[in-house]
Amino acid sequence: MDDSESLSHSKWECKYHVVFIPKCRRKSLYEQLRPHLGEVFRKLAKYKESSVEEGHLMQDHVHMLISIPTKYSVSQVVGYIKGKSAIHLARMYGERKRNFVGQHFWARGYFV
Asked: CA 27, CA 22: separation in Å to the nearest integer?
């Protein structure tokens, strides 16, 4: 029952609990996007060879348990997920309600 994964020269089991928020902790726009965000996060994590093990989308913040291979840093993967999801949300929902500036949906930083 070994849960570790392997690359060519290493075995690893790195799981991180990541928390981040939308800008100004906006709730009205976030509630409309909430059902769609889980699918977007999982798809973007796959591009970086990571997987979202568990996730909770709260009213004004996101909790994710994400498994990241050792060849990627946590900041690289989380930055990619936050950046690409903000671009995707701006393209899909930007016309409906412009509650965020440009493609800046997430606040700076995250907590691990």
From this structure: 9
Specify the CATH number of the domain 11-93.
Answer: 3.30.70.1290
Whole-angstrom distance, CA of residue 61 vs CA of residue 108: 13
Q: Do 61 and 25 meet the contact criterion of CB atoms below 8 Å apart?
A: yes
Contact between 106 and 33 (Cβ < 8 Å): no
* 25-67: pLDDT as tens digits: 777 556 677 778 889 999 999 999 999 999 988 888 889 999 9
